[in-house]
Amino acid sequence: MTSSFKVMVVDLGKNKSSLEYFDARREWIGGSGLAAGLFSHFGLPGEDAFHPDQPLILAIGPLTGYFPLMSKTIMGFMSPYNNQYAESHGGGRSALALKFAGYDALVVRGKAEKPTCIGLGSREVHIQDVHFLKGMDIFKTGKKMRSLKPTNPGHRSILRIGPAGENLVRYACVNVDTYRHFGRMGSGAVMGAKNLKGIILSGDSHVDLDPDLSKEYNKVYKDIYNTVVQSGAMRKYHDLGTPENILPLNELQALPWRNMQSTYDENAGGISGEKFGQDQLLRQVACAGCPVGCIHIGLLRERFGQEHEYLYRQVSYDYEPIFGMGTMLGVDTAPGVLTLLEDVEKMGLDAISAGVALAWATEALQKKIITREHTLTDLEFGNVQAYREALDHLTRQPNEFYQALAGGTMKAAEKYGGEDFACVLGQEMAGYATGENYFVSQALGFRHSHLDTGAYGLDQEQDSRNIDKAIEYMQDQEDYRVLMCSMVGCLFARKAYPKENILRALNSLGYDYTQEELDACVEKIKHHRWALKFRTGFKPEDVKIPSRFKEITTWKGKTDPEYMDKLKSKYQEVLREMASAHEKRQGENQ
């Protein structure tokens, strides 16, 4: 274990790269902490997200390459969606490729003159002109990039954007190794603004382990590995995967349907995890360094000839994409969902935000707030072909309506009307209509993500409408998740990595933390991230929870708007106090 982070900095504007070292490993740990630390060093808090010198940061953690399910990479950036500091988390081979290239982080600054690809290995950096990839979809781009330098197919990760990123859709994503993504908050648009079409990470080196540590390391590794593969703790993720959530949430009246006009539908079985597993599942694959295999690949057939002739395509699916391209749009057949997911994939759109945006547009058209002149197609819940056309319009932005919608659902609603039924909680909602705690949690969460605190779980407890309990729950959950995201671990692996296992894993590699020291580091990282978010413009009182969230009915009955408003007021007070205290401490230490 070295005391410094090894960071490659690439400046696209100057066509140069440099290796830098940051001596704060114990303080920033890695992953989420490292990304926030690097943004503090390189970022421009007062400038627009598309300013050429805003950094795009990839960061991995101290357990990457050493332990199972430590397979994620943090992407830190100024979000074009809300012009605030943001994170997105991606898997695939990206973390191990960066680790085996010998780096803790990659920082990209500047803007290239032409579409460009960065190739990074342990011994070389390539900044390559790829103007011939301009406008290509995700799949074609991936095929072309496989022939670019560095070529090391066994240990390589390919990140790329599609037309949505090039066209600066504010929720364009970055595709990683075909089936994973940096999905939320517009990282694809940040790459597009930099004329950065793709990144190739080549893990062409190796990592060492101190022989004196091998005995304890082997013991800890075996304990964690056995929990992952033998205890049954992660069986769900391999078997049906997260789509297993469809039927239980539907029965709880907590599954958003048709722009959350309903929270239950009798046809949910047509897109359930069980239905996908029985009729569509082709295979399960895994991120590098993961023995679970939670990535479910569906087989999509398209008939093109009278004599039963078919094209076959492979499309990944998970619960959230099924929500975005299925329930939210009223699409209740598995082939219909896969068809839309393939289009989303090609374009490089975030499936959740795109689905929620089109669901709002469909209801707005129903209510005659907008017209077909705006939508250019007859949007109707359940109409797969209409949504295929709309996804293309959303990507290409042929008129002012789609230009507004490409900026976010609420941006379009503010311009055209319909704010009360825009399903936006800081960003387009995730697929949990569970109740007040979750709605407040996503609206005010650091990433505006359902994974910030997992408060949908709290909603399902009996004593869930208790403000003090809710605040304590969300704070405790955020503490743990900041720790995991600084490692950087898959959040599905929570049962395999309680705090004591994370501490054992770190110390088996020579980090020598006490639990108190590690807790203090996590607390500082959490506070620093929030200070960054406030410094870049976050005002929690400006985040509105639309009326639609105050009108729904779940298994518990009607939403309680009074409780939700009080919880939001209390939570935003806690967040502001935390960020202010951190800024004060920083000022005193300077």
Q: Can you put this structure into words, describing what you see?
A:
Its cofactor is [4Fe-4S] cluster; tungstopterin. Pfam families: AFOR_C, AFOR_N. Residues 5-205 form the Aldehyde ferredoxin oxidoreductase N-terminal domain. Keywords: 4Fe-4S, Iron, Iron-sulfur, Metal-binding, Oxidoreductase. Its EC number is 1.2.7.5. There is one protein chain. The protein has 590 residues and is of the alpha+beta class. The chain folds into three domains: 5-202, Aldehyde ferredoxin oxidoreductase, N-terminal domain (Aldehyde Ferredoxin Oxidoreductase,  A, domain 1, 4-Layer Sandwich), CATH 3.60.9.10; 235-419, Aldehyde Ferredoxin Oxidoreductase Protein, subunit A, domain 2; 434-494 and 514-589, Aldehyde Ferredoxin Oxidoreductase Protein, subunit A, domain 3, CATH 1.10.599. A six-stranded mixed sheet has the order 2-1-6-3-4-5. It has a six-stranded mixed sheet with strand order 8-7-12-9-10-11. Strands 13-14-15 form a three-stranded antiparallel sheet. Helix 2 packs across helix 20 and helix 12 (334-347) runs parallel beside helix 15 (384-396). The protein is globular and about 65 Å long. The chain starts with a strand and ends with a helix. The mean pLDDT is 95.
